[in-house]
Amino acid sequence: MITLKEIIKLLKDDNNFHEIIVDGDYFWDFDKSVKFSALSYDSRKTDKETLFFAKGLNFKKEFLTGLSAPFYLSELDYEVEIPAIIVSDVKKAMSLIAQAFYDYPQNKLKTLALTGTKGKTTSAYFAKAILDAMNGGKTALLSTAQTSLDGKTFFKSELTTPESLDLLRMMHEAVENGMTHLVMEVSSQAYKTERVYGLTFDVGVFLNLSPDHIGPIEHPTIEDYFYCKRQLIHHSRYFVANSEMLHFNTIQQEIGDLPHAFYGKFSDNQIIKSDKLHFELEGAITGEFDIRLIGRFNQENALAAALATKALGASVDNIRTGLAKAIVPGRMELLTAKNGAHIYVDYAHNGISLENLVEVVEAHHTGKLVLILGATGNKGESRRKDFGNVIENHPRLDTILTTDDSNREDPQKIANEIASYITRKVDFEMNREYAIKTAISNVSTADDAVIIAGKGTDKFQLKDGKREPYIGDTEAAEKYL
Ligand SMILES: CC(=O)N[C@H]1[C@@H](OP(=O)(O)OP(=O)(O)OC[C@H]2O[C@@H](n3ccc(=O)[nH]c3=O)[C@H](O)[C@@H]2O)O[C@H](CO)[C@@H](O)[C@@H]1O[C@H](C)C(=O)N[C@@H](C)C(=O)N[C@H](CCC(=O)O)C(=O)O
Ligand SMILES: Nc1ncnc2c1ncn2[C@@H]1O[C@H](COP(=O)(O)OP(=O)(O)OP(=O)(O)O)[C@@H](O)[C@H]1O
């Protein structure tokens, strides 16, 4: 429940209030005792007690026709009969109003937020496992892959970082469920679109940076992408950053006096020994640790999660127990075919993650390597060239180009674009399940491997703006083992 009076105060304090318009009259103060028992940004989900937020590029005036909500809040006066609260920035307003509506759940949770181009989800699962070992399973999780508001049941997430109304509702639900900690991913888009406006996290983590998410609906330039991500520094009480990342100097300057821990080559916290599933740390955390995911980059993710959770009170024992248990859906999932060949299902869907994935698998398999890969449509267009270059630079790969969320584009055209950067022969099979079947039938010994990259645990293919059911990479692979 929130009153209109409280809302006006919140907006005025944030310099975000224009006026209230009722029947064409403008009000700077409006003292009628209006209360809202629900918040919504979807006109189809409103009732007589809902405050409706009119926002977004695709918002249309007709969504207000017949709306039962008593007020709408917007940057634009749509000149309709429904009273309006006009603001400078609707997304900032959404976040602040939601915080008050849900009684500031962020103050009732210890929060850990992760950003970076790659490894957010993996590190988030690692951090949850460590915190669970410390607090007895009371860690909520908001990740790209899945969300858990009770620490033990999971559902598929819509976005990496939810819209503020959803985020605050979920944080509130986590508190109601007795959670003491929240681990969440904060995307660059979250800062760009003010989904986390006004929130300060107990610990923030910056894992790495590489060019990605640049395109018409994401960021115009890498400068914008990096700037948005760096906002996490200014909204964290403690910061963990990778000293080996691109533009680390900027991060270091921006952190200034904020309490922090750095990890990697140019810092005190390092991986000093690294085997397949075992590594040794030196620095603020010392000792030997096991994880279930191969690849040095996953050990770096583990180190970041360890430093971040240590700042929240986790002991070395909690860290060791948590890391040894953590599994991450669709990240480096390993299946073994009847003939012994290994099938890796991994969410790698940009250049840097594909490069890492291929390097790791190459290091462990001397035989035949088959890669199955596609690239998304209407999003991350630059990945096509990056993928082509990775494949070109790894001549051992036999590649089958396929569909991956082609959306409104033709998957074959996307595949052709990837192939245009490769000088040797590649195969094409736009039916992803069939591509997986073909790849598995092409490997025959334990020295061989199939890499299925891009979709991880996704059970859908994005087609013409809609999610169409898809069997899932792991399930498809299991069918043909
Ligand atoms: C730029 C951005 O923040 N986009 C998100 C945002 O869209 P928007 O605010 O522009 O809204 P819109 O899609 O134009 O729709 C207009 C509004 O009309 C409403 N509506 C619609 C129909 C109707 O009858 N009545 C009505 O009221 C809708 O509920 C919506 O509020 O709000 C929508 C939900 O309301 C999201 O689905 C959408 O995510 C877009 C599609 C998306 O996929 N974004 C990606 C790029 C993203 O954010 N990715 C990052 C991950 C990046 C990373 O991995 O680093 C993420 O955090 O997920
Ligand atoms: N630290 C890392 N550096 C480079 N690549 C990584 C790293 N961690 C994971 N990866 C690769 O990136 C893929 C995606 O990992 P993960 O889902 O943890 O990252 P993410 O940041 O959440 O990605 P996205 O933003 O695309 O959802 C993994 O499947 C793996 O191949």
What distance lies between the first and last C-alpha atoms, to the nearest angstrom?
54 Å
Ions, cofactors, ligands: which are bound? Answer: ligand UAG, adenosine-5'-triphosphate
Question: Mind telling me the CATH superfamily name of the largest domain?
Answer: Mur-like, catalytic domain
Oligomer: single chain
Radius of gyration: 24 Å
According to DSSP, the number of beta strands is 27
Q: How does the overall form come out from the CA principal axes?
A: globular
The CATH architecture assignment of the largest domain turns out to be 3-Layer(aba) Sandwich
Structural class: alpha/beta
Sheet of most strands:
8 strands, mixed
CATH topology group of the largest domain: UDP-N-acetylmuramoyl-L-alanine:D-glutamate ligase
**The level-1 CATH class of the largest domain:** Alpha Beta
Note poorly predicted spans.
Answer: none
Task: Tell me the helix content.
Answer: 25-40%
Q: Strand order within the widest sheet? A: 12-11-10-13-9-14-15-16
**Individual helix count:** 14
Please state roughly what percent of the residues sit in beta strands, choosing from under 5%, 5-15%, 15-25%, 25-35%, 35-45% or over 45%.
15-25%
Average pLDDT: 95
Number of domains: 3
